[in-house]
Specification:
Blueprint lengths: L6 H22 L7 H20 L18 H17 L1 E3 L2 E3 L1 H18 L3 H22 L4 E11 L5 H9 L5 E11 L2 E13 L7 H8 L4 E7 L1
Antiparallel strand pairs: 1-2, 3-5, 3-6, 4-5
């Protein structure tokens, strides 16, 4: 970093910072917790912190009555550490599904890009922005063709006479579903058995409940309840 950056140099860094935050934030604007303004502000905050450290870089020594020495690079380091708390707030767990991990990683990435551009490493910052755009845009299309592990919870209740596990396994297996028993509840009055299954399968996209299989189970006279929850 130059010891005495000019105002023109600082202006270029800030403009490139806003552009980088906008490029990455444009993808996150569609249905994500952290959108365009969030990524731009975080990138800008990191860049300003690094520019401030750059401006203070020429500060040397300490006053005779001072017990501490100034470490100007602690300022951007604190910014980078603080992003971890913001990213953690974007991660949510809903049952067995965890969401927001990519958003948290995006916030971390734009912060690092802001630090690069704020320090004057223009080439590195632009390269990181381009690569981040490739990961967020192009690889998203590739993910549509990759089969992911899916899971849901199936609850089945019988009148107490039927053996539910082989019935459920026989209904799900031909369609490529696997069922694992999670628990069973038995009631004597009126006599009934309720079992919960964790259903696993692979699919390239979020799937709707297998209505044909659920209807097949519901039509059995010995089954009184069928419930599916993602």
């Amino acid at each position: 970093m130059p010891l005495h950056p000019s105002w023109q140099d600082i202006a270029v860094r800030l403009l490139l910072t806003l552009a980088a935050g906008a490029v990455i934030g444009f993808d996150r604007e569609r249905g994500h917790a952290a959108g365009l303004r969030t990524t731009m502000l975080m990138c800008l905050a990191a860049s300003v912190a690094m520019i401030e450290a750059n401006l203070l870089l020429g500060t040397t020594g300490k006053a005779p009555d001072s017990f501490t020495a100034m470490d100007v690079l602690r300022l951007p380091l604190g910014i980078l550490s603080g992003v971890g708390f913001i990213g953690a707030g974007a991660i949510l767990r809903r049952g067995a599904m965890v969401t927001g991990v990519t958003t948290a990683a995006t916030l971390w990435t734009v912060t690092v890009i802001g630090l690069c551009l704020g320090s004057g490493e223009i080439g590195l910052g632009i390269a990181a922005t381009v690569l981040s755009g490739v990961v967020l845009w192009m690889l998203k299309q590739l993910e549509l063709f990759i089969a992911h592990n899916r899971r849901a919870t199936l609850t089945v209740k019988s009148n107490g006479e039927a053996l539910l596990e082989p019935i459920v396994q026989a209904a799900l297996a031909p369609a490529g579903y696997r069922a694992t028993t999670m628990g069973m509840t038995y009631a004597s009055e009126p006599r009934s058995t309720t079992m919960r299954f964790e259903v696993h399968w692979k699919d390239t996209q979020e799937s709707a409940p297998p209505t044909a299989i659920l209807r097949q189970l519901e039509e059995r006279s010995d089954i009184t309840l069928v419930a599916w929850a993602d």
